[in-house]
Hints:
Layout: E1 2-6, E2 11-15, E3 17-22, E4 27-30, E5 33-37, H1 40-46, E6 54-60
Antiparallel strand pairs: 1-6, 2-5, 3-4, 3-6
Amino acid sequence: MLLNLEYPRSSLSIQGEFLVTLNNGVNFGGTQRLVINNDVPSLLELGFDDQTVSYRIEVQTP
């Protein structure tokens, strides 16, 4: 499943394996759980910044 989303988004929670690609060239992924909300410090740690307008999430579903 591929999600194309606009930033900022109020909240997003994904369970399972995922890969996130930001339009500013930052990529991150994981295998547990992804939670995106308006917690700015956490978003900055993930690579979101003023240049991040949209992002793509690939979710591997069993």
